[in-house]
Design a protein that fits this description.
It is a single chain. The chain has about 90 residues and is mostly helical. The protein has helices at about 15-25, 55-70, 70-85. α2 packs across α3 (about 70-85). The mean pLDDT is about 90.
């Protein structure tokens, strides 16, 4: 039996390029295994917190957030939400 390897998703220079690709392409031909669910935030952020943490912990948080492609403050909020099973 022959194994079929799916094509990698190309890189796009703009959202418009990505939208055009999705509108025209047969996505079943592409490797979507690296895709992850996207979390959209619709709830107004009407409260804030201020906490002191070691600079090494903040540096580690920033590295993890950057690897995930999100701001570190959003990453911290996601960690809190995940721990208390809170859905925004």
């Amino acid at each position: 039996m022959k194994t079929i390897k799916n094509k990698p998703i190309p890189s796009f220079k703009s959202n418009q390029e990505a939208e055009e690709f999705v509108a025209k392409a047969d996505l079943s031909e592409y490797d979507l295994s690296a895709f992850q669910p996207m979390h959209f935030e619709f709830v107004e952020k009407d409260a804030s917190i201020n906490m002191r943490i070691p600079s090494s912990l903040l540096a580690a948080l920033k590295i993890k957030a950057k690897a995930k492609g999100i701001p570190y403050t959003r990453y911290i909020r996601l960690l809190i939400e995940k721990d208390i099973h809170f859905k925004t």
